[in-house]
Known about the structure:
Blueprint lengths: L2 H10 L12 H52 L3 H14 L4 H13 L3 H14 L5 H21 L3 H14 L4 H20 L3 H14 L4 H13 L3 H14 L4 H11 L2
Helix pairs in contact: 2-3, 3-4, 4-5, 4-6, 5-6, 6-7, 6-8, 7-8, 8-9, 8-10, 9-10, 10-11, 11-12
Amino acid sequence: MSRKAFIGDTLKYRKPRSEPDCMTTPQVKRYSLMDSRVVTKLLSMITTFCILTSCAGIVFRTEAETQFEEGLALFNQGRYAEAIPYFEKAASVDPNYGKAYLYLGRSYVNLRKWAQAIPPLRTAYRLIPDETRSEIFNILLDAILNAALSEFKQGNYIDSITFLREALRLDPSSAQAKKELAAALIGLGGQLLSEGKAAEAISSYKEAVDLSPNDSGAYMGLARSFFKNGDILKAIQAVEKAMRINPGNSDTELLFREMMGR
């Protein structure tokens, strides 16, 4: 057999190749193109999301500042009642906007609406940086003390006491808060005693004595409460203490004689 015939027969009877496991070049190109399109689309979506959220943050902050500035302009003109809605809106838009709460509280303070001033001032005190807190501290403490005094004048001793306890938590060394709390407790003691609640009155007067040990009025109230509760010995001890603090007081001497004559 000639060499040429042998090669021809070999080519004629060669087994066909099996299909390759890998993709052909056109397939690779097609899938690569699809992947790049997906990635591009995802990147576009992410970029759009970031832009939208970023812009939303800018609008959010600008609206709060705009509301605040409009309120501040009115505040500086002494138009406190008109400024309040703007500060409220600024705080609503941005709940962490400390200055909005501060000027909202200050507006109420200038209107002498002490109880309404306290909540925003509390929030401002919490939000504003430490280096500027001293100013807010004084405004807040002043509002609390004035709110307590307002309630005291109306005979709302329990509300007055609540405010004064908060004042002492803020400033435990406040002599004014201690003095006014003692007065409110004496007022509450008298109210309780008139309602026939001698035991509760004793508790109120005792706290007043602890806060203001040189207040003869606290000892007088304590003496009357003990007397009405049937504890004559303690009543006499309390009235004697009142007499030592304020000798010559006719009310104290009258109460002492009443007790001794029983």
